[in-house]
Each structure stands twice: as structure tokens, then as C-alpha cells.
Specification:
Number of domains of chain B: 2
Largest sheet of chain A: 2 strands, antiparallel
Largest sheet of chain B: 6 strands, mixed
Oligomer: heterodimer
Number of strands of chain A: 2
Radius of gyration of chain B: 24 Å
CATH superfamily of the domain at 70-232 and 246-275 in chain A: MetI-like
Number of strands of chain B: 21
CATH topology of the largest domain in chain B: Rossmann fold
Number of helices of chain B: 8
Helix content of chain B: 10-25%
Number of helices of chain A: 14
Largest interface: A-B, 16 and 20 residues
CATH topology of the domain at 70-232 and 246-275 in chain A: MetI-like fold
Order of helices and strands of chain B: EEEHEEEHHHEHEHEEHHEEEEEEEEEEE
Structural class of chain B: alpha+beta
Order of helices and strands of chain A: HHHHHHHHHHHHHEEH
Strand order of the largest sheet of chain B: 6-7-8-3-9-10
CATH class of the domain at 70-232 and 246-275 in chain A: Mainly Alpha
Distance between the termini of chain A: 42 Å
Shape of chain A: flat
CATH class of the largest domain in chain B: Alpha Beta
CATH architecture of the largest domain in chain B: 3-Layer(aba) Sandwich
Distance between the termini of chain B: 40 Å
Radius of gyration of chain A: 24 Å
């Protein structure tokens, strides 16, 4: 009996790992391919059958890619936009989630429903109307245009509101008896208690902001205002695309995100598993 | 601090959660608010704390009308049923929190926190997080946090309901000790009558928002104001018996319970506690249908007429199922109620 169970356990473990390895290979392969392509010569890149590793790593691809566009400038721009939108998102999300979860004001439910309803509007629709607004405000080709439309997110507000609602009301009442104002309660109790969720929101926003392509492309004209992802287009010329350079540039683009992810990994995993949602 | 509650009422929709309640609590007393769930005891406590606003009526702390004073300025300490400790803060930060919010300097707050932590005996856990403490310890932290600002009144909402049975007894003694040591007027809510009787100076029994009786535990137990209080207090539960009175003779079915009672002829509800019976050769015959050993006592299930009657005897008595015992009711232990369930006499 116990022998059977042992064998069963081993088989289950093997199956589990097989599935995990299968999934991991599928996720990792594009990354490996990107890195290896970035180190190949153009001939090696199109050779049949393709090789997984370049014969001699062409580190010069990175130099060339870096020189092809003002990447330093793009990098700074991306950093500014990502930092500002993430700070903005955190402030608006925490404040509104607190209001929706703890405060009572007339029309609370209606306003919350309207927030949720905006989740159903496709992003493309928003781009058109937001673009018109930006034009009317004469914000084209400015940081404002890239930042302001993205400093609040109905989805994150919804997510954090659910987290805040799980905090028992008695904590709020206890804080009240302890002469703690609403704002102080939010900062000292609610935020630290839900720091995993807030970290998750921050990292999800950093990723999406870092990778944003369409919107920055639409609202900027000048070279000085472009962001990293826009820079990749540079390699697509009429004469064809230099894939190895795109790959090198892509590697440089994703590196900061991967580093941030590795540092905050613990919080993301906890936050996402607790919310039962996938990033 | 004396507390006076006058005509206190809280209405939710059509429901009177608390209905014109009047209560006077003397300085330094420990009072238990007792009743089944939904009887308005917690609502009363939250009105005392200021977290719930009364629909009607007034609350006085001493001579001061506090009805419209917000909770943070009422000088109350409140302990919640789930303790409501801040999980991300250490025990020390939890206890100093009310002081820091009141503008006390950090060093001073820490000193005062340590002082109160010693009273509740958690001073060795000051650097732990609440999740690293047992339920009983968590509760002491909550009490320390409530007491650290030196309130005039301590309010406890179901302080023992989250603890296991053994810890409950120890903790209720602990609450009594702390209350005596700090000499603070304390009101606690409970649905456990034994808990209320064991530590309270006085008990207020509530039912459907209405105060039924406010008394010293022993007096209340022996002299319940009405059938509800009689039924609510005591384990095993009181026996409810239908009795007839004719010419001063109280009978239940064929059995004569008492003679010479000064009671008008008629049909009444009566209550007899299981421990009010004593073995008596000249008493009524009871056939033992069933029995339960509880340790100190032996609980016999018998019948008086058609009604099942619980009789408590010492556990060293030799009885078995099917035996017949003879027993009488102690003088003054037949509680007779009128048609409105009020106590009209003890016989």
C-alpha cells in the first residue's frame, strides 16, 4: 500500500516537473533566441538549419545598435515616463482604493461601477479620444502627453480596493479610538499592511510603461522625446531590417525590467498569488 | 468614573437594536452585558464607545454628557472581539500607537507602554509581531493598547470568544485581575452566562434590545426578574414546568411540589433549577430515564408528568438507568412566573 503510494508520488512529481519544464522551455526559448540572435552575424541569422549559439559572439552588434539611435536620450525619457506614471498610479490608486473601501460618500457605488465600466472600453478607443484631448491641450511632443493619461488605472484601483476591503473594519475603528485620522490610518496601517499588493501594482505598471510603444509614438514627433521602444523601429529601413541589431537593442531594452523583476520577485509572486490574478 | 445611560435607543430601520435602556454603573465596577446574539449588547457597547451614534437618549460619564463626543475624545479604551491589532507593527508599536497619535514623545510613550505591558504580563514580547503570539497574548496586547492612554472606561467586546475553553477561564480571571489592579470602570459584552457571572460585579441581561435585569450575579441567579433571565442563566438549564395551584398546593401533574404556598389558584409557568432538587425519602418519585456524568455532578434525566426534568445529584450517588429516586425541591427554589413571564414569587 505505502509502496504503491510512494511510486504514485514519484510519478506525480515527474509529471509535474515535465509540465513545468515544458512551460519553462516555451517561455525561455524566445529570450534565448533573442540573446543568441543579437550576437550573430547577418549570414548566421538566416542560415538553415538555424544554430542555437553563434559561432563567434558578435559583441560589436551592441555597439552598433547603441550608435544607431540616441539610445541614451531614449533611456532617460523612458525612465522619466516610467517613474512619473508609476508614482502617479500609486498615489491615485491608493487614494481611490481607500476611498472606495473605507469612506462613505454619496454615490460611492455608482462611481465605483463607472470605474469598473471603463475597463470594458477597448484601449484603441481610448487612444483616439486621448489623442484628440492631447491635441486640444497642445501637449503634443511633451512629457505631459506621455505621462498624464496614464497616471490612473481603473484596474489597479479595483484590485487594490479588493485588498483594502479584506482589512477588518475593527482595525479602522480601533485606529479611530486611538485618535488616528483617516489619512494617517491609510498611510500607517492600510499601505504597510497591503505592501505586497502595492508592490505588484508598481511592478506591473513599470513593465507596461517601460514597454509602451504606440502611445509614445503617437504623441511625440521629435527625436528628443522618443522612448526606447520607439528606437527599435529605427532598424527597420526600406532596405530591410537588421534583425541582429534589433535583437541587440531589445536585449538592452528588457535588461532593466529583468533586473527590477529579479529584485522584486518575492513581492510580485506573493502579491499575484494572493490576488489570484495573473500579471 | 460613574456611567449613566438614560433612555438609550438605537434604531436600524424598523428594528430597535437597543430600546430605551437605562443603566447606572458605579465607579470601578466590572459590568457584564449579557444576552443572546442580536440582543443589542454590542450595539450598547459601541454607543458607549462613541463609534455608534444613538438614535435617542443620553450617555453620561460622571456628570459630563458625552453623547455627542467623538470616540477619540471620550477617554475610553476599547478592545475588539478580534483584537484588531495592527499586524505589521511590533507589540511595542501597537501599544504606543495611541500615545504617539496624541503627541506623546517616543521615549515617554515607550516607557508608558512598558509599564502597562508589565501589568498585563507581555513585557517580554515587546519586539514580536502579533502573529507570533498566542490568542491569549494577543488579547493582552489589545488590553494594554486600550489601557495605555489611561482611559476612564474600559470597554471589551466579547473578549473571550476567540479563545479555547481552557484559556478562556484563565483569561477571564486575568481580566478581573487587571481591572482590579488598574481600578477602572469596565464594561464587557458576552453571550456566555458563566463568564458573566464569574467575574462581573453586576450583570445586565438584555433581550431584543430591552434590558431585562441589572443585578449582582448571585442575586440575579436566585431571583431572576423573569422567565427569560431564569432560562438564560445556569448550566444545566433550568427546568420549565407547568404547575397548577389550588388552596396553596403547587402540583405538576400528579406530583405535589409544595404545600402552603401563598399563591392565588390557577395555572402557572414555573422554573426549578436542576440543583434545586435534593434527595428526600418523603419526596416525589422520579424514574431515571438517562444519566450523564459531568465530573462533580451526575445529571439525571427524569419526567415530571409529561415534561422532561433534569435533576443534579452528587456524582458519588449510586444510580443507574431505570432506577427510581425520591427527591424534593429546596425551600424557596420553585420560581413561579405570571402570564407575562414575570417572577411573582419563590416557593
Amino acid at each position: 500500500m505505502s509502496q504503491n503510494r510512494k511510486v504514485g508520488n514519484i510519478i506525480a512529481t515527474i509529471l509535474k516537473y515535465a509540465v513545468l519544464i515544458f512551460g519553462a522551455v516555451f517561455t525561455i526559448l524566445p529570450f534565448v533566441w533573442m540573446i543568441s540572435s543579437s550576437l550573430k552575424t547577418p549570414t548566421e541569422l538566416v542560415q538553415i538549419p538555424p544554430s542555437l549559439f553563434p559561432e563567434t559572439p558578435q559583441w560589436s552588434n551592441y555597439q552598433e545598435a547603441w550608435k544607431a539611435a540616441p539610445f541614451a536620450r531614449y533611456f532617460v525619457n523612458t525612465l522619466i515616463v516610467t517613474f512619473c506614471t508609476t508614482c502617479g498610479v500609486l498615489v491615485t490608486t491608493v487614494l481611490s482604493a481607500f476611498a472606495f473601501s473605507r469612506l462613505n460618500f454619496p454615490g460611492k457605488k455608482t462611481v465605483f461601477s463607472l470605474f469598473l465600466a471603463t475597463l470594458m472600453i477597448p484601449g484603441e478607443m481610448l487612444i483616439i479620444t486621448n489623442y484628440e484631448t492631447i491635441i486640444n491641450l497642445k501637449w503634443i511632443d511633451s512629457y505631459k502627453a506621455m505621462i498624464i493619461p496614464w497616471i490612473s488605472s481603473a484596474f489597479y484601483i479595483y484590485l487594490l480596493t479588493r485588498f483594502f476591503m479584506q482589512v477588518p473594519e475593527s482595525l479602522y475603528l480601533a485606529a479611530k479610538v486611538d485618535k488616528c485620522s483617516d489619512f494617517k490610518y491609510m498611510i500607517k496601517i492600510m499601505v504597510p499592511m497591503n505592501k505586497q499588493a502595492i508592490f505588484s501594482i508598481a511592478i506591473l505598471n513599470i513593465i507596461s510603461s517601460w514597454n509602451a510603444f504606440l502611445w509614445p509614438l503617437l504623441v511625440t514627433n521629435s527625436q528628443e522625446m522618443r522612448v526606447l521602444s520607439n528606437g527599435l523601429v529605427r532598424f527597420q529601413t526600406e532596405a530591410g531590417s537588421s534583425t541582429e541589431l534589433i535583437m541587440a537593442a531589445s536585449c538592452m531594452l528588457v535588461m532593466p525590467i529583468i533586473i527590477i523583476y529579479l529584485f522584486l520577485r518575492k513581492y510580485i509572486i506573493e502579491g499575484v498569488t494572493r490576488s489570484g490574478l495573473k500579471g | 468614573m460613574d456611567i449613566r445611560i438614560e433612555n438609550l435607543t438605537k434604531t436600524y430601520g424598523n428594528l430597535n437594536a437597543v430600546d430605551h435602556m437605562n443603566l447606572r454603573i458605579n465607579d470601578g465596577e466590572l459590568v457584564g452585558l449579557l444576552g443572546p446574539s442580536g440582543c443589542g449588547k454590542s450595539t450598547t457597547l459601541f454607543m458607549l464607545s462613541g463609534l455608534t451614534t444613538p438614535t435617542e437618549g443620553k450617555i453620561f460619564f460622571g456628570d459630563k454628557d458625552v453623547t455627542s463626543i467623538p470616540p477619540e475624545d471620550r477617554e475610553i479604551g476599547l478592545v475588539f472581539q478580534n483584537y484588531a491589532l495592527y499586524p505589521h507593527m511590533t507589540v511595542e508599536d501597537n501599544i504606543t500607537f495611541p500615545l504617539i497619535n496624541r503627541g506623546v514623545k517616543k521615549a515617554q510613550a515607550r516607557e508608558e507602554a512598558l509599564e502597562i505591558a508589565k501589568v498585563v504580563k507581555i513585557d517580554q514580547y515587546m519586539n514580536r509581531k502579533p502573529s507570533e503570539l498566542s490568542g491569549g497574548q494577543q488579547q493582552r496586547v489589545a488590553i494594554a493598547r486600550a489601557l495605555v492612554k489611561k482611559p476612564q472606561v474600559l470597554l471589551l467586546d466579547e473578549p473571550l470568544s476567540n479563545l479555547d475553553a481552557k484559556l478562556r477561564v484563565a483569561t477571564r480571571e486575568e481580566i478581573r485581575r487587571i481591572q482590579q489592579e488598574v481600578k477602572i470602570t469596565t464594561i464587557f459584552v458576552t453571550h456566555d452566562q458563566e463568564e458573566a457571572m464569574s467575574i462581573s460585579d453586576r450583570i445586565a441581561v438584555m433581550k431584543e434590545g430591552v434590558l431585562q435585569q441589572y443585578e449582582v450575579p448571585q442575586t440575579m441567579y436566585l431571583n431572576p426578574a423573569n422567565e427569560f433571565v431564569a432560562n438564560f442563566l445556569g448550566t444545566p438549564e433550568i427546568n420549565n414546568i407547568e404547575v397548577d395551584v389550588k388552596d396553596g398546593v403547587i402540583t405538576a401533574g400528579d406530583a405535589v411540589l409544595r404545600t402552603g404556598a401563598k399563591l392565588a389558584d390557577g395555572h402557572y409557568h414555573a422554573g426549578i433549577r436542576p440543583e434545586s432538587f435534593y434527595v428526600d425519602e418523603n419526596g416525589i418519585s422520579f424514574a431515571v430515564d438517562n444519566l450523564r456524568m459531568t465530573g462533580r455532578d451526575l445529571l439525571l434525566f427524569t419526567k415530571l408528568g409529561q415534561t422532561v426534568v433534569r435533576v443534579l445529584v452528587h456524582s458519588y450517588m449510586h444510580v443507574a438507568e431505570g432506577d427510581v429516586i425520591k427527591a424534593s425541591v429546596r425551600e424557596g427554589h420553585i420560581l413561579v412566573f405570571d402570564s407575562s413571564e414575570k417572577l411573582i414569587g419563590r416557593f
